[in-house]
């Protein structure tokens, strides 16, 4: 696959994935089309050497793996990412009727850069649980797939000091303006969900029981920059890594077992049944190993590369970076390090990755947060502590992390995939 084809498919994936549920649905479809057999956690697993498998949990987390040989002797080459992104989530009872308008109450999901959500053309996507005409509970994905709301800014004439900085109140300033509503009308969000289900061909929905719906920007992902050297999109953190991991798995002929895990809920701490701090990955690995002894042997021979975007040095705000660890866009993937274990990288795993990049002819950079600023984290340290597996944190450098629209280099995703392909082809990982 050429870099151009790789990036075009990336843009398509981003546009098709307005929520973690949609991202996992797209990934599941791609793996199944490539011949991966879908597993159900409720069933007994009869795994066979030479086969590839995929399993999901909660519809928002996914594990895909290949078994060309017995994994106990060689261990797994594991890749990790997360499916969720900071955003605004529609409340369960969101209806706000005043001044002749219907607005939606929302809550913030993760560390949202709130100012970027104003004056955007917004839509809604997620998962809906409904009572069917047969009286059972069913679930389906929903996506309005068009601009249905916005959060208009207050005019500068009414707040002359706004450009000096203004606090945003998540309760009162963020409700989404949805529609004009006369005094005789009583439209509610559940009604709109029901209408959308009918539009999508769901005919057996009798009552909306619950929903997990998220706002998203309808502007499509795009190549930008004078020479189209950048990618601009919502949810680059961290669907970019999910896509890179998926393409690496699908386009590498592994001689040793390989695995990709993409967890939900990283942006809110990973503490859930489908998050990295939950038992999903461990459960899959133990079922593959079959016994505790084989499981421990397998992990000792394995390595995990956690992929999550890194902070590229912003030319307008260079003072927020350590100049010796300030990644540039389009200059290759970034090794992420932190003395306090906010990243799981150590000298062994970092050295391994540098060697892999040399073999793949891929430039590599490093990132360490300024010593006087707090550092974020990833699923890397959580996975390392839960499994006891050697782990490395890497990522593609980007700007505007947690904005409604982020920016990355158009070459870096392809660079990282090349390095990860080299990793999956390693038959031995010796200390």
Automatic annotation (TrEMBL):
**CDD domains registered for this protein in UniProt:** M18_DAP
Q: Which Gene3D superfamilies match?
A: Aminopeptidase i, Domain 2, Zn peptidases
Specify the superkingdom.
Answer: Bacteria
Q: Which InterPro entries does this UniProt record tie to the protein?
A: Peptidase_M18, Peptidase_M18_dom2
Biological process terms in GO annotation: proteolysis
Q: What EC designation does it have? A: 3.4.11.-
Q: Which family does it belong to?
A: Belongs to the peptidase M18 family.
Q: Quick one: a GO cellular component term? A: cytoplasm
Q: Which cofactor does the UniProt annotation name?
A: Zn(2+)
The protein's name is: M18 family aminopeptidase
Keyword vocabulary terms for this entry? Aminopeptidase, Hydrolase, Metal-binding, Metalloprotease, Protease, Zinc
Any Pfam family from its record, for instance, is: Peptidase_M18
* Record-linked PANTHER family: ASPARTYL AMINOPEPTIDASE
Give the main EC class: hydrolase
Example of a GO MF term: zinc ion binding
């Amino acid at each position: 696959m050429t870099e151009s084809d790789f990036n075009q498919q990336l843009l398509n994936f981003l546009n098709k994935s307005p929520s973690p549920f949609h991202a996992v649905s797209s990934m599941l479809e791609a793996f199944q089309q490539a011949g991966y057999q879908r597993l159900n956690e409720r069933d007994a697993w009869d795994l066979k050497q030479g086969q590839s498998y995929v399993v999901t949990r909660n519809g928002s987390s996914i594990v895909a793996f290949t078994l060309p040989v017995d994994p106990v002797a060689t261990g797994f080459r594991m890749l990790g990412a997360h499916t969720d992104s900071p955003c605004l989530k529609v409340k369960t009872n969101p209806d706000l009727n005043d001044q002749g308008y219907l607005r939606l109450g929302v809550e913030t999901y993760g560390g949202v850069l709130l100012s970027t959500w104003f004056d955007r053309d917004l839509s809604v996507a997620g998962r809906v649980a409904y009572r069917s005409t047969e009286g059972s509970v069913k679930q389906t994905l929903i996506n309005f797939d068009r601009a249905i709301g916005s959060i208009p800014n207050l005019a500068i004439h009414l707040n002359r000091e706004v450009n000096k900085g203004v606090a945003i109140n998540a309760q009162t300033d963020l409700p989404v303006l949805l529609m004009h509503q006369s005094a005789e009308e009583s439209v509610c969000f559940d009604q709109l969900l029901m209408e959308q289900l009918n539009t999508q061909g769901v005919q057996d929905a009798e009552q909306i029981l619950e929903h997990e719906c998220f706002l998203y920007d309808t502007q499509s992902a795009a190549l930008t920059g004078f020479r189209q050297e950048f990618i601009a999109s919502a949810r680059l953190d961290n669907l970019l890594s999910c896509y890179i991991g998926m393409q690496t798995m699908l386009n590498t002929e592994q001689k040793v077992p390989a695995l990709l895990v993409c967890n939900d809920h990283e942006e809110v701490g990973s503490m859930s049944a489908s998050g990295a701090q939950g038992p999903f990955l461990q459960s899959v690995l133990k079922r593959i190993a079959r016994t505790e002894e084989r499981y421990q042997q397998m992990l000792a021979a394995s390595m995990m590369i956690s992929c999550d975007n890194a902070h590229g040095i912003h030319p307008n705000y260079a003072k927020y970076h350590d100049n010796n660890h300030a990644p540039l866009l389009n200059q290759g993937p970034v090794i992420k390090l932190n003395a306090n274990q906010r990243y799981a990288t150590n000298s062994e795993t970092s050295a391994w990755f540098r060697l892999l990049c040399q073999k793949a002819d891929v430039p590599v950079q490093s990132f360490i947060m300024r010593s006087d600023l707090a550092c974020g984290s990833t699923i890397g340290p959580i996975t390392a502590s839960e499994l006891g597996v050697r782990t490395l944190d890497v990522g593609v450098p980007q700007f505007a992390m947690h904005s409604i629209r982020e920016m990355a280099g158009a070459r870096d995703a392809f660079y990282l995939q090349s390095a990860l392909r080299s990793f999956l082809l390693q038959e031995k990982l010796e200390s």
